[in-house]
Amino acid sequence: MKQVIEKLSKEKSAQWPDFFKIISQDLEILEENLVVKLPAKSKLLKEIISYIFLSGGKRLRPAISLLIAKATGGVKDKHIILSEITELIHTASLIHDDIIDSAKLRRGNETINSLWNNKISVIAGDFLFGQASVKLGELENTEIVKIYANVLSDLCDGEIEQFSLLFNPDITLEKYIGKSTSKTASLFAACCKASALINNQPIEIVNSCNQYGLSLGIAFQIVDDILDFTSDSKESGKDVFSDLKNGLITAPTLFALNSSNERAKQIRILIESRFNNNENDFDKALRLVFELGGCEQAKQLALNYIENAKESLSFIKNPELKDYLLAIPETITKKIK
Amino acid sequence: MKQVIEKLSKEKSAQWPDFFKIISQDLEILEENLVVKLPAKSKLLKEIISYIFLSGGKRLRPAISLLIAKATGGVKDKHIILSEITELIHTASLIHDDIIDSAKLRRGNETINSLWNNKISVIAGDFLFGQASVKLGELENTEIVKIYANVLSDLCDGEIEQFSLLFNPDITLEKYIGKSTSKTASLFAACCKASALINNQPIEIVNSCNQYGLSLGIAFQIVDDILDFTSDSKESGKDVFSDLKNGLITAPTLFALNSSNERAKQIRILIESRFNNNENDFDKALRLVFELGGCEQAKQLALNYIENAKESLSFIKNPELKDYLLAIPETITKKIK
Q1: How many domains does the structure of chain B reveal?
Q2: What is the pLDDT of residues A221-280, one digit of tens each?
Q3: Looking at chain B from residue 220 to 239, which residues have their Cβ under 8 Å from any Cβ of chain A?
Q4: What are the two backbone dihedrals, phi and then psi, of residue A110, each rounded to the nearest 5 degrees?
Q5: What is the ipTM of this complex?
């Protein structure tokens, strides 16, 4: 196993963008902690955990959190634990999301529910949530416990909100941003805020870090939603067009629906009928989203949030670290440029 | 809704055993907090939560925790929060267990996965775990955060251990007790220990409370396992004979398997073949468990743990409270007498 990890770490480091490199040692410790050190007792669970953490994941949230740590006083042991907590919660929520969405592919690999089954996925997700709680206890910081507890609560709220808004063309931009905040940005914000808190930063800096994570997270979700329309399955490592197909109204569809063009009404009718009236209803709706410029407008919205994220970094004086943290938003939007 | 709660509270109080009555006010607050005060945003989730908490549940763990509070210095606001956390974790784990076991009945009512579906059950369970985390944060006590984080971890371990030991006749008594501790007793122990910790009790008393919960929890699980053999579906409110049918080797089967009687080998063969060789294989195995006295031996084991639980209460001087806490084990074993 040790050799597998070393090989993996080398492969990973080679793929990492530049801004990961100054925290590569920390990320390697994180990788080992996730892949081999989680105290799973059963052989089956050990196998699933290795599969999950070896089969991809960019460790974007831990990287951001560690860079914020570097920018606010340096990386301490507790920041490594914080990174683990963040990645554990993120991964657990993906596993349970894949049950909810009946997803077959994730990060280019088969999902746990597809490779094993829904029951195993419930347990595996719960185990990772449980491990996140144990590590949260190790931080011995009640403020961070509260922040992450709210993230867990937000994640469920986002998931349920999403579930209850399926095939509803009346979803507003505000609701969409609210759902994206709960489902995605809340964890980005938490890992940035908690990182600054561990370094005992003053409240203004803690808030700026929180704002950076929040804006970045919302932009990340919008970009992810655009990619569901514009990338192919091989490139994104996920099923594509699955959002609209499953009735999930994301930014591109939302903008198309709100277009003043007459064809906006057609999309509405197609969604309300759940693409069930004619065989090619779904393809028609998809084409309309593109024709009405839904993806371009969504892209502009993502760029606005990226600008907000960058502005929150004005407190950082070290030019190298600032460049790295500014590079993260660029990496996120690069995919849709 | 308020009227429903009042009606329910009255019905509940009428059913409560005597030892619940001195904490009935606290239990009523708990009831209202669970049924109507959880901050679920979506209508669907609100409905599910009401269904879950209105459709039964004896609130045994909160009651024990509150009685321990009374016996160690009095019930404080934080004890109510602790009771909520305990019941939330217990309920969330039941919801996810029902997915894993494909159970149709729980507390005499249809399960969430049966009434809605597995996806909704995943979300509902996660939401309750999330709420438990939020309330854990409110306690502002890192020691209790650690205790409950380990409970969450134990719950998963127990579930996975159980899953990986299905149809395995070689399970030892030690493994069975270990699994029962993780899956059940760990939460009983935590709610007793944390209750004493909130009241700033000395370490010996905290440990005694922990021991009381642990022994009580193991006994509770053994009794529950016996009831799966001896009660009917209407009485237990659950599917019966489902453990053995699903390959789960609990105390009664374990004792029958370890009997020196020649027929023990027959059970082993039937389990190993997953009752698939002949139509009446399962009925045959069930009969053998009864004939070999599996349930009687399991009962004796439960009574031993009950004795341990009672012995842990020697520190309590108030005779009335001691009687109440001694009455709880009696209530548990009454069902198998």
Answers
A1: 1
A2: 999 999 999 987 656 666 678 899 989 999 999 999 999 888 999 999 999 999 998 889
A3: none
A4: -65, 145
A5: 0.80
Dihedral (Cα; B149, B152, B155, B156), 10-degree rounding: -110
Range of the domain at B292: 22-334
Backbone phi, psi, residue B110, to 5°:
-65, 145
B156 vs A contacts (CB less than 8 Å):
123, 126-127, 130
Do A156 and B130 count as a contact with CB atoms less than 8 A apart? yes
Q: Domain holding A101: CATH number?
A: 1.10.600.10
Give the mean pLDDT per block of 10 residues along chain B (337 residues). Answer: 55 64 90 84 82 85 95 96 96 88 77 82 90 90 92 86 87 94 96 98 97 97 94 66 91 95 92 91 94 96 95 91 88 80
How many helices (H) and strands (E) chain A has is answered by 19, 2
pTM for this one?
0.86
Among candidates A39, A122, A153 on the partner chain, residue whose Cβ is nearest the Cβ of B130: A153
Enumerate the residues of chain A whose CB falls inside 8 A of the CB of residue B113: none
Read off the pLDDT of residues A3-51 as tens digits, 9 standing for 90 and up: 555 555 566 555 666 777 889 899 999 998 998 888 877 778 888 888 8
B134 at the A interface (CB within 8 A)?
Answer: yes
A-chain CB neighbours of B137 within 8 Å are: 142, 145-146, 149-150
Would you say residue B16 lies in a domain?
A: no
CA dihedral for B97, B98, B99, B100, sign (positive or negative):
positive
CA-based torsion, A19, A178, A289, A261: positive or negative: negative
Question: Does some domain include residue B226?
Answer: yes
Provide the CA B300 distance to its chain's centre, in angstroms. 19
